[in-house]
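Lab notes, practical 5.
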Amino acid sequence: MTFLTVKHMKVKAHVYVRGSVQGVFFRSSTRAMAKMRGVKGWISNLPDGRVEAVMEGEKDAVDALIDFCREGPAGSRVDDVEVSWEKPSHRFTEFGIRT
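Output from the prediction step:
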């Protein structure tokens, strides 16, 4: 029997980012980071000015992407990041930007 280590465990995070995060390439920067780390899911602007994302992949890769969201790309200002963990759905084939 083989056991996965925590860093290779598949996880899913639902993330909301608040601050100056729209119009500063937040979604495209996050997508680029997700692709580099093999994270699947999506990211979208919300009408209230926040960004919402669903991230699914290996725990260490998702954690790194959440850390990126806490900082954001140059020109952004992140005030708060809310993360809720969910059961992985394994339904995503890429990391996309929703409009």
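Observations recorded by the TA: Strands lie at 10-20, 40-45, 51-58, 77-86, 95-98. The two ends are 44 Å apart (CA to CA).
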